[in-house]
Amino acid sequence: MRLTDYTDYSLRVLLYLAVRGDGLSTIQDISQAYGISKNHLMKVVQQLAEHGWIETVRGRNGGLRFAERSRALTVGEVVRAMESDFALVACLPDQHGAHRSCVIMPACRLREALDAAGKAFLAELDRYTIGEVAQPHGALSSLLGLGGAVIPIVPVAPTPSA
């Protein structure tokens, strides 16, 4: 299973803003931190705001901030909201209940296995909240250019060859 870039960017925006905390950020800030086009992020940010997961502040000193209630939001909830279709194969129902027929459908057990796998995938994502995956703040802040603590990289000594 592969998530769309749209969902990936949605999760990244939420992580960025969760790590940033109460301060305002701009789409430009997030774009630069991840190396993602501003144009791609604009629609993502709009939908995240419509869900109430982020707050937008208009005006000259405006920007975006993480909605505190979103700390309890699960990764699974975000993925379900952002992905348009979880049918792993055409014979599984899409979000509207539609599916294509297949000649072996009446006796096919593969369909059942793939359906269970998709449900297990989402159940696993439901185990993690945005607040949890936004940890450790210091390391993520540093990597995102937010001025967090710098995590030193300790080189591993090579093992002697035999």
Automatic annotation (TrEMBL):
Q: Which InterPro entries match?
A: Tscrpt_reg_Rrf2 (IPR000944), WH-like_DNA-bd_sf (IPR036388), WH_DNA-bd_sf (IPR036390)
Q: Name one GO molecular function term.
A: DNA-binding transcription factor activity
Q: Which PROSITE patterns match?
A: HTH_RRF2_2 (PS51197)
Q: Which UniProt keywords apply?
A: DNA-binding
**Record-level GO cellular component terms:** cytosol
Which domain of life does the protein's organism represent?
Bacteria
The UniProt entry, under Pfam families, shows: Rrf2
Gene3D superfamilies in alphabetical order: Winged helix-like DNA-binding domain superfamily/Winged helix DNA-binding domain
Q: Where is the signal peptide?
A: none
Q: What is this protein called?
A: Rrf2 family transcriptional regulator
